[in-house]
From TrEMBL:
Location of the CYTH domain: 1-181
Gene: cyaB
Name assigned to this protein: Class IV adenylate cyclase
Database matches in Gene3D superfamilies: Hypothetical Protein Pfu-838710-001
Amino acid sequence: MIEVEIKLPLFRRSITERALTDCGFKAGNLVKESDFYFTSDFHDFMKTDEALRIRTCENFTTRETTSFLTYKGAKLDTVSTTRKELETRIEDSDIAREILISLGYKKLYPVTKLRQYYHKGRMTACVDQVESLGSFLELEILVDSPEQKESALQSIEALLLDMGSSLKETTRKSYLSMLLSKGSPD
């Protein structure tokens, strides 16, 4: 699976949420996502532009808590954060974390955000409030093959233009990279 995605810093969250609704998006779940990223001496995910994480989701809409192990490949272009993504649900995030640490992986800075999901067709919009960083809009479409990537990116760009923004205003930096550049509290 390939995740075609952009990330836009937000200065007026309520205006963005209204614009999404005006464009036909329906509000979905409100979720607190706690991400723990990993690296190692034998595979430095930061240097290879990859990511290995365990995410725990506290869904305030359904009152469920779920966890996932995710691998994200290197970015596939220079305008978005499009990359291969492999994800599987895990039963116990604490045990999974201990397994990775026992195998020689090291935990990096945690990323915690409150995420409001919006949906329209095959596109998902996430309005995020990221601890220590502020608000962001992520737009994503999942595709099965690299051949579908450009069409998905064009759909995302069209929505951005409808909302009064452009790809030039987006960032390719991950939340983890932004937090690390601010300085880890460790």
